[in-house]
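Section 5.1 Outputs to date
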Amino acid sequence: MIFFACAGAIIASLYMLLTQGLTVLNARRTGVLVSKSYGKAKVERAIDAERFEKLLQGRVKALSGPALILIGAICLLAWQILSMTVLG
């Protein structure tokens, strides 16, 4: 059962890292960030640099949660496989 939970956590965290990470990379490349608020306002670096950087840093900080879950799930899965092969 732990295998399925770890596999699900790995898939979900990879999905979150890819979707949010690609958004951050695209915003850094183009200089336009679409906010998640109601109305989906576009924040451009050239017009409002301070707000753009604040929103971008918030998105980068939000990537740490899925990254930690991914590392934990990989470690737990590796530990389970190692314990089954060595002790089993």
